[in-house]
User: What shape does this take?
Amino acid sequence: MIDQAVGRSSAVTEMPDELRANVKLLGRMLGQVIAEQGGQDLLDDVERLRKAVIAARRGETSADEIARMVATWEIDRAVQIARAFTCYFHLANLAEEHYRIKTLRDRDAGGTVLPESLAQAVQELGAERAAELVEGLELHPVLTAHPTEARRRAVVTAIQRISAQLTEYNTPGRGASERAESERRLLEEIDLLWRTAQLRSTKLDPLDEVRTAMAAFDETLFRVVPQVYRSLDAALAPGTGTRPPLARPFIRYGSWIGGDRDGNPYVTAKVTREALLIQADHVLTALETACTRIGRTLTANATFTPPSARLRAAIAAAEDANPDAVSEMATRSPQEPHRQWLLFVASRIAATRTRNLDLAYRSPAELLADLRLAQESLEQAGAVRQAYGELQHLIWQVETFGFHLAELEVRQHSQVHAAALEELRAGGPLSERTEEVLATIRTIGWIQERFGVTACSRYVVSFTRGAADVAAVYELASHVDRPPVLDVVPLFESGADLDNATAVLTGMLEIPQVQARLADNDRRMEIMLGYSDSAKELGPTAATFKLYRAQERLTAWAAKHKITLRLFHGRGGALGRGGGPANRAVLAQAPGSVGGRFKVTEQGEVIFARYGHLAIARRHMEQVANAVLLASSPVVSERTAAAAERFGRLAEKVAAASEQAYRALTEAPGFPEWFALVSPLEEIGSLRIGSRPPRRGLGAPRSLDDLRAIPWVFAWAQTRVNLPGWYGLGSGLAAVEDLAELQAAYAEWPLFNSLLDNAEMSLAKTDRSIAERYLALGGRPDFAEQVLREYDLTRSLVLKVTGHTRLLENRRVLSRAVQLRDPYVDALSHLQLRALTRLRTAEDLSDHERERLSTLLLLSVNGVAAGLQNTG
Assistant: This one.
C-alpha cells in the first residue's frame, strides 16, 4: 500500500533513505495483510482511493469525483478502507519516530554539543552561572487524563510491539536467518494490529486512566530521570560518575489522573485514594527492582573494598533485628558487604510495598539514608565509580519519585465549593455532593499520613473569581476532624479572570491559612493559568497576549510582596489550547515569570508522544530544562523585556482586532448550532477516549460556554479547518499597516515569533478545499464564507510577515511530515464526509444503517487524529 506511494509525492521523494526504507517495508507488509484478510479487491479499492486523492492534490481530478467514488462502496467496505488508512498512519508515525531517534543518536555521536540541550545551556551561560541557576531549577510536568488520546491502549501497545520488531529488523550485523525471523515477527505484529479493533467498546473509568499513565512511568519516566540529571552533571564539570554530583534533582512529577474531579462525577474520594495506591505500588516495585539489580552486581570483595565502620555497624544491627534475612544474604554473598547491604535495602523496599511494618521504611528519607550509607562507604574505600554510578541513579530516583511517584493534585470547580459551604452553614442534612467534597478532603489527609504532605497537598480551584473561592476550600477543610495541609491553587481561565488575578492574590494574603502556609514554605505560592478556555473565549491571538500581560503583572506583584511565585501553565497538546513546542513556549514567557521554575500539564496524546520512547523523552526533558535555564538568565530576560516594550502597542492593536474578528464569528446567533452540524462534535463523545463528559450539560451546545475546550479543538481538526489555531490572527495583522514593524516583531520578540510559527503550523494542517465541503453542511453560507475569508487573509499575511514563500518553508522535517500525510488524511476526510453528510441530512435511516455510518465516522475520526497527530 505505502510502498506504491513512494515517488508519487515530492514529500516522499525527499525522504531520507532509511526513513523511505522503513516506510516501504511497513507499507508492503500492511498491503500484504490487507490482501490476505480482506481480499485483493479490498486492497484494489484502497489503492483506487489513494491514487485519486494524490491526483486531486495535483489538480488531475476533483473532490466531486472522489466523493462519487466513495459513495459507490457499501458502508462495510468503506469501514474496511478507513481501517486501512488508519493503520497506515500508525505505521507512518512509527517509521518517523524511528528516524527521529536515529537522527538524535547520530547527532549525539558527532561529538558536538546538541542544540537545546543541557550541555548547550551550560556552555552559553558559563559553568559558574549555570551552577547558580541549577540550585533553584524546578521542572514539574503534571500528567492529566484530559481526553485527547484517540488510540486505544491495545492499539498503542500493538504499535510498541511493532516498534520493537522494527528495531530488531534494522539492527546491523544480523545474519540472513535472524533477519528472516525478524521479518516474520514484524509481519505477525502488523497482522495483529489490523485485527485489533481501533475503537473502544467500553468507556474508560478514572482508574483505567491511572493505569494507562503508569505504563509511561514503567517504560520511560523512571529510567529517563537519572539520564537527564547525568547529562547536567557531565555538563557542569568533568568527572561525572567519579565524584559527588553537582546536579541536584530538579524534576518533580505531578498528576491529576484520579484527582481531577472538575466536571467528572466518576472521580470520587475512593478513586483518589486508589490512584495514589496504584502509583505507590508502581514506584516501590521499580525502586525494589533497581536496588536488587544494583545489589546483585555490586560484588566488590571486602579485601579490596573494605566497608566503613558505619556500614559494618548497620549490617550488624540489621542482623540482630532480622537474623534470618541478613544471615542468608551473608551466606550467599560472603565477603561482599556492600552487596549484602543493598540486597537488604531491597528487601525493606519490598516490605514497604507489601506493608510489612516490621521491616518497612517509614519514609523515603530513611531509604535515602541507607543508600547514602553505602555510597559513603564505597567512596571511603576508593570505589568512587560504584559510589557515584548506578547507585547515584537510584538515589536520584528516590529523591525524584519518593514513595508516591507523582504528587496527586485535586481539582474542583469553585461553584461546587460554594454550594457545599451553603449547605454546611445552613446546618441541615448534607447532599451526596457535599459529603463527597468532605470525603475528598479527608482522603487528602489520609494520603498525607501514609505518604507525607508532598504526596498530595495542592488543591486547584477552577474558575477562581475572587479570594473567597480560595478561602472556601480552607473553610470546608475545617469541617473534617483532622484538616490536612493544603496549598490552594487558584486557576484563572477567562479573560476577565486573568485581568483580575493580582487582585485575587492580594485578597488571598488576608486569608489566615494562606498566611500560615507562606510562613511555613518560605513565602512560596503557586497559581495556575488556563490556556484552553481563554483561547476558546478570546481566540488564539488575543489569548496569547492576554496571558503574557497577566504574567507580567503577576511577576511584578510577587516581587512587590516578596513572594516566590510559581506559575502553573495549563497548556493543551493542540495549538488551539496553548500547545506547540514546549521549549519555545518557555522562552516566550514574560521576563522574570520563569525564574528557574516551570510547571506545565502534559496530557493525552502528548504523554505518549513525549514519553513513549526513552530517547525522545530524554530529548524533550533536556529541551525544556535548557529553555528554563536560559529564560531565567538576565541576558535573555532583558532582551525579551526590551522587545515586549518596543512592540507592546503593536501587540495591543493585533490582539484587539483579532478578538473582534473572533467574537464576530463565535458569538453570532446560530453559530454553536452550525458548528455542531459541520463537525463530528456530537459523535466525538462516542469515542470513549476519557472518563470525563465532553460538555457541561446535555444536548447540542447552546453556547460555547457549554462546550469544553478539548472537543472544540478536536472537532475543528476533523473538519480540516483547525480554526482554534489561527482564526482572528489575519484580522489582527491586517490592523497593523506597517509590514516592516510586524516583521521586526517576528524577528526580535520570542512571543510574537512563537505565535506566528504555531499559527503557520496550524494553517499547514488546514485544507481549504476539503474544509469547504464540511462548512457547507451547516446551511449557513455566510458563516462558511466568513471562515474561509479569514483563512485566506491569515495565510497571506503570515507568509508576508515571516517572509516565507510557502507554509513551513523553514521547517523542512515538519513540512515533509505534513505533505507526506496530507493525501491519506484527505482519503479519510472523504470517507468521514460521506458518513457525516448522510447522518446530518437523511431522514429515513434504519437503526442498522445509522450504526454502521457512526462506526465509519468514528473510525475516520480516529484515523484523521492519527494522521494530523493532534486531537485536543
Confidence is low (pLDDT under 50) at residues 2-13, 696-700. The beta strands are 138-144, 254-255, 407-408, 410-413, 458-462, 487-492, 524-530, 564-570, 597-603.
